[in-house]
Amino acid sequence: MPNRALPNPTEWQDNPYQPEWAERDFLYSPDGHREYPQHACKITYELSKPYIRNFRNALDIGCRVGEFTRYLHLDFAHVYAFDPNLWPDFRKNVDLGRVTHYNCAIGAEPGETMMFGGTHAMQEGATGRIVPVHTIDSFGFEDIDYIKIDVEGFEKKVLQGAAATIERCNPVIVIEQNHVVLKDDVQYSAKEYLEALGYISVAVDRRGWDFVMVRD
């Protein structure tokens, strides 16, 4: 498949984020805004922190409104966040001076994919739309110390398109593996893919979904 030009970073009109909101675990989302000190993303990130060797750059793939990004950007020098849906609340949850957002899907090879609502799976009544797909390797990122991936069953494809970055940077990787599986895939395929690369699971969240993977 031919190479596709890389997307430009998202340009936001404003950045209402306030630093004190992080101290209160204050989250804006389509469901409203509230303090959320026990959010699953916070718990997973805290599980992974002891295994992080450096805090240079992080990738948040499937960032949505920034539930996970908001914790990453407090510790890492910079965060690159990706989502095929443009959530207006993202700009309220993070300091955009420390985060670069890309409105695209991430996969195994450049091209396009059909999205239905917020997922790749067809949903009754949902209107499909075509979104661009890029690989992590095509961005040529350096000094990536952490990758979080939560893309509704697309995790293995994201990893395949990030193989060179993973080999070069050896990051801590957090992947969600639950009942959402693509039609041509099997459950835990992303975890097994990483294990074949020498990664091991060192922690899992209380739901049994988010796996913290590291490699010596």
Give a description of the structure.
This protein has 216 residues and is an alpha/beta fold. The chain has one domain (19-214): Rossmann fold (3-Layer(aba) Sandwich). It has seven helices and twelve strands. The chain has a seven-stranded mixed β-sheet, with helices on both faces. A three-stranded mixed β-sheet has the order 6-8-7, with no helix packed on it. The longest helix is centred in the first third of the chain and has 9 residues, at 40-48.
The biggest sheet amounts to: 7 strands, mixed
How many structural domains?
1
Rg computed from alpha carbons, rounded to a whole number of angstroms: 16 Å
The overall average pLDDT, rounded, is 91
Uncertain residue ranges: 119-125
CATH class: Alpha Beta
Helix and strand run:
HEEHEHEHEEEEEHHEHEE
Features:
3-stranded mixed sheet; 216 residues; 7 helices; Rossmann fold; alpha/beta; globular; 7-stranded mixed sheet; 12 strands
List the helices and strands and how they pair.
Blueprint: H1 19-23, E1 26-29, E2 32-35, H2 40-48, E3 57-61, H3 69-75, E4 78-82, H4 90-93, E5 99-102, E6 105-106, E7 111-116, E8 128-134, E9 144-149, H5 155-160, H6 163-169, E10 172-176, H7 189-196, E11 200-204, E12 210-214
Parallel strand pairs: 3-4, 3-9, 4-5, 6-8, 9-10
Antiparallel strand pairs: 1-2, 7-8, 10-12, 11-12
GO molecular function: methyltransferase activity
InterPro entries: FkbM_mtfrase, SAM-dependent_MTase, SAM-dependent_MTases_sf
Pfam families: Methyltransf_21
